[in-house]
């Protein structure tokens, strides 16, 4: 019972589906674990030219619908499909190469443009920072100059105070002591202010030098920005030219595609004409073969009759040959007997000759009757 059940299960198991493309017919994989629609064509297999089984099956069906099921023999269909695949492959490789080259050029130009824009932005930021630093340096230089002027004014005031103190030396000793103290303070303040003024002047000179350096850097950045801008414009021009070349290639490929399509249509028409001529030649060949068979039958009939006549003639020749041999033997015996009976009486000789002749006549009669 178990064996019968297993046999029934094996017989009822569905046959594994195969690819719908006639030149493939490979087993198809089952649907995924979630189920779904079963495959009709190979999901992963590709043919020369990057065509899938589904695309080739659609092309074959379109060709059969255009020319009919009997319009194109399988060999011609295979040749046409192979020629189409070769043409498609020949077009696909230049297109893929051109597309890859255009993508590489576009990516390179985009990278260069992005780098140029980044460098230009960095140059703008550096120029703005240089302007800010220059303005700050100018402000500090102005402040230092103002401090120097204030220090000079304080020195002049101290000098005037010293002169005033010297002019009033005749005043009271208390005033002179106070004046001397004020003079000392003024001299100390003058020295400090002079030192501060020198430091401010040095700082101002340093700031001026830095401002000059920043101005030079800004000029260099401006030149670099101009260069990058020119490079960006050149890159844009090159990108536009590459786009124009790409469009030109696309137009050229469209033209070649139309020409190849026209050639394929002409080849199809030529194939149809050759098929018609081939059918006519086959019909003529069949007619000639029929006539040849008829002539061969007639010749065989005549040959059979000739063979029968030849057999009858051969039989008659054989009979005649046998009679001739018997006659020859008889004559030989008569001659021998005649030669042997030279001295014998004539009666025995005649008797022997008659016996020989009668025996020969009987033999001839028997042969003729047969």
UniProtKB/TrEMBL annotation:
<feature type="compositionally biased region" description="Basic and acidic residues">
    <location>
        <begin position="223"/>
        <end position="235"/>
    </location>
</feature>
<feature type="compositionally biased region" description="Low complexity">
    <location>
        <begin position="1"/>
        <end position="15"/>
    </location>
</feature>
<protein>
    <submittedName>
        <fullName>Response regulator receiver protein</fullName>
    </submittedName>
</protein>
<feature type="coiled-coil region">
    <location>
        <begin position="127"/>
        <end position="171"/>
    </location>
</feature>
<feature type="region of interest" description="Disordered">
    <location>
        <begin position="1"/>
        <end position="41"/>
    </location>
</feature>
<keyword id="KW-0175">Coiled coil</keyword>
<feature type="region of interest" description="Disordered">
    <location>
        <begin position="223"/>
        <end position="245"/>
    </location>
</feature>
């Amino acid at each position: 019972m178990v064996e019968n059940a297993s046999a029934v299960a094996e017989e009822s198991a569905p046959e594994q589906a195969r690819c719908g493309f006639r030149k493939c017919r490979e087993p198809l994989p089952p649907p995924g674990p979630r189920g779904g629609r079963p495959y009709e064509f190979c999901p992963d297999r590709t043919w020369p030219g990057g065509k899938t089984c589904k695309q080739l099956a659609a092309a074959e069906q379109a060709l059969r619908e255009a020319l009919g099921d009997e319009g194109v023999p399988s060999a011609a269909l295979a040749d046409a499909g192979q020629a189409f695949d070769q043409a498609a492959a020949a077009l696909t490789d230049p297109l893929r190469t051109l597309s890859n080259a255009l993508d590489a050029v576009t990516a390179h130009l985009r990278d260069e443009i992005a780098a140029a824009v980044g460098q230009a932005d960095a140059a703008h930021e550096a120029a703005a920072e240089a302007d800010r630093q220059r303005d700050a340096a100018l402000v500090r230089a102005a402040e230092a100059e103002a401090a120097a002027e204030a220090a000079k004014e304080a020195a002049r005031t101290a000098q005037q105070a010293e002169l005033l103190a010297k002019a009033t030396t005749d005043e009271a000793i208390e005033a002179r002591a106070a004046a001397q103290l004020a003079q000392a303070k003024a001299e100390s303040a003058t020295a400090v202010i002079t030192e501060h003024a020198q430091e401010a002047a040095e700082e101002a000179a340093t700031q001026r030098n830095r401002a000059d350096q920043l101005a030079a850097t800004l000029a260099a950045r401006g030149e670099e920005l101009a260069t990058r801008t020119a490079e960006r414009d050149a890159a844009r021009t090159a990108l536009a030219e590459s786009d124009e070349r790409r469009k030109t290639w696309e137009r050229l490929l469209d033209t070649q595609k139309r020409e190849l399509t026209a050639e394929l249509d002409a080849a199809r028409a030529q194939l149809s004409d050759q098929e018609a001529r081939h059918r006519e030649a086959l019909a003529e060949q069949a007619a000639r073969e029929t006539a040849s068979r008829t002539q061969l039958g007639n010749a065989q009939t005549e040959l059979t009759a000739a063979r029968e006549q030849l057999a009858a003639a051969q039989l008659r020749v054989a009979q005649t040959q046998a009679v001739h041999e018997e006659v020859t033997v008889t004559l030989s015996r008569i001659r021998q007997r005649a030669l042997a009976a030279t001295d014998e009486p004539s009666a025995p000789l005649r008797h022997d000759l008659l016996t020989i002749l009668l025996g020969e006549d009987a033999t001839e009669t028997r042969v003729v009757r047969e």
